[in-house]
Give the backbone structure.
Amino acid sequence: MEEKDKENNGSSGGTTRRQFLGQVGLAGAGLQLAPLLAKATGILPDNEALPIEPITVNIMINGSQKTLTIDTRVTLLDALREKLMMTGTKKGCDHGQCGACTVLVDGRRINSCLHLAAMCEGSEVTTIEGLAKGDDLHPMQAAFLKHDGFQCGYCTPGQICSAVGLVKEGRAKTDAEIRELMSGNICRCGAYQNILAAIKEVQNA
Amino acid sequence: MEPFRFVKAQDNLAAIRAAGINQAKFIAGGTNMLDLMKLNIETPKQVVDINKLSLYKIEELQNGGIRIGALVKNSDLSYNPYIIKNFPVLSEALLSGASPQLRNMATTGGNLMQRTRCPYFYNTDFACNKRVPGSGCAAITGYNRMNAILGTSDKCIATHPSDMCVAMAALGAIIHVQGPKGSRAIPFADFHLLPGQTPHIEHNLKQDELITHVEIPALPFAVKSYYLKVRDRASYEFALASAAVALDIQNGTINGARVALGGVGTKPWRSLEAERALIGAPANAQTYRTAANAALAEAKPHKDNAFKIELAKRTLVRALTTVEGMS
Ligand SMILES: Cc1cc2nc3c(=O)[nH]c(=O)nc-3n(C[C@H](O)[C@H](O)[C@H](O)COP(=O)(O)OP(=O)(O)OC[C@H]3O[C@@H](n4cnc5c(N)ncnc54)[C@H](O)[C@@H]3O)c2cc1C
Ligand code: SF4
Ligand code: FES
Ligand code: FES
């Protein structure tokens, strides 16, 4: 490696054997290796006897308390859709890249596909199903209808939850700012112009 | 996703202890961990949720610096008034990254530790030395338009994807960590590692060391600082090239300069070469071009990314020109 690189930007990891053991060896270490590893790194072997058990979580969803016993791997999105049969929240990419799964957790918009349900203990979750009061649509829902803020509608629950979060944050003033702060929601149908109009109407109301 | 045991840590020590078990991993926002776990690129046996820990504070320090808790959300950090006023480059870098939803989840510690977005690292059908040590590098011979031109090795040419880290590199941040044997401070430049022959070793943190906070030392001239990110679409996209700069210009002469580049390096890339070319020189276009040439002098292009050399230079010149305009 160049001396120059070192001065600016440090070194690579190849230098210490301890790190090498710590990071590579662990992945494939057999059981006999475990005590040796523990000595070199301080990392204890996994207690294989400790079972991986389902987990129980209490989540307030749209104002009603839910207790779920679920596999630790279940995301908030899958808990909503597959366990609670609340299919309003959509799965687009499942990797944080589209915004279809946007819900509000403790008032803030997040991607429910990258959030473990197990991490929601004690949280308050609002989904698209929780925005209307009975038959009275939430102003954002009404504005999306009025301005035709969708075509196929698949991205719409995420767009609406995200827009509700955006208005609450209160940071987007200009059209450009609204567009930037709605950039986490992709619409394959390209309803952006009408979504913008809907959001502006709610902001100005 | 592989099955895992879920542990919610109640305090730092409990978290550190729980992470000291074979194949344990912390989870904070989860935006990188879960993404990679769904693809079986990360396969922890024990996931340690650290969100209960008291690491949410942003504290102004007596000397003008700032101390940022590891769990501070990227959105909260980006909108912090003290950061906006004194370290605008950091706020701008954060706001240029990901989406509002992701920034509401992503944490300071998680952002420091996020892994590369190299498409071959993400696809388990391809050889990748970072994912499977010794398996080869599909990017070197494959489509490498997004890959790095600085700090590469014959084993890996992946970029470090973070925007926040580029600003922190320029600001000379210090990362504070706690392990079973106590705490230590790691200068930013030493935190991330070059790929060298071991691209799977990406940072200087042990498995059971917890990032507790990040300190940004006082840098008065950082009130005039700026982050410029160039990418394939206007938002919600990683950088092709980016620049974090701060300039101290007195009577037309540059007295102090900080420069770091993103999107081009295998780690957040502080350029002392560019800083040297700037300090003491007149604040003008020619100086900026000289600095940009110095920053990219060692750049090594691959088949599809030679364009990044000129792009990074122009990005840096534009950023420096913008900061001069603030004076
Ligand atoms: C679609 C998409 C687009 C994105 N675009 C951008 C972008 O443009 N620019 C950008 O910079 N980033 C971008 N990101 C990445 C995002 O910024 C990171 O995923 C995020 O910062 C990770 O933080 P987290 O808290 O969610 O980390 P997690 O996913 O919880 O954890 C990531 C890693 O950090 C470790 N970790 C977390 N906290 C600690 C701690 N306190 N101590 C020790 N280890 C810890 C975990 O063990 C894990 O290895 C994007 C992500 C997605 C999904
Ligand atoms: S560049 Fe690095 S991360 Fe990408 S395929 Fe090669 S080894 Fe893997
Ligand atoms: S499904 Fe969550 S962002 Fe696409
Ligand atoms: S309305 Fe079809 S994806 Fe947005």
